[in-house]
Design goal:
With 86 residues, the chain is α+β, with helices and mostly antiparallel strands. Helices cover 63% and strands 13% of the residues. Strands 1-3-2 form a three-stranded antiparallel sheet. It starts with 6 loop residues before the first helix and ends with a helix.
């Protein structure tokens, strides 16, 4: 049990702990946003310095899944990073 005089120190410790937790959650949230970023074929080609035929081969061999909507083709950044890290 804490005494009345210890309350300010305990509150300060709780505040510091909450700041650390919030910081970790923010970092995790940013990573999630990066993972879900959609890239066009040209984005992937430029970002990872690969030839467009390499990208087509990855899709054809089902190593990389493409997402199509509105007549356009996109790729999840996370999927590409996973493929490159294998």
């Amino acid at each position: 049990m804490i005494t009345y005089n210890e309350i300010p120190a305990v509150l300060e410790q709780i505040q510091q702990d909450l700041q650390r937790v919030l910081s970790l959650l923010d970092n995790q949230n940013e990573k999630s946003k990066d993972d879900e970023t959609l890239l066009t074929r040209q984005d992937v080609k430029s970002l990872f310095k690969i030839h467009i035929s390499t990208l087509y081969n990855w899709v054809k061999s089902k190593r990389l899944k493409q997402i199509s909507f509105g007549g356009r083709v996109y790729f999840r950044r996370k999927d590409i990073m996973d493929l490159l890290n294998k």
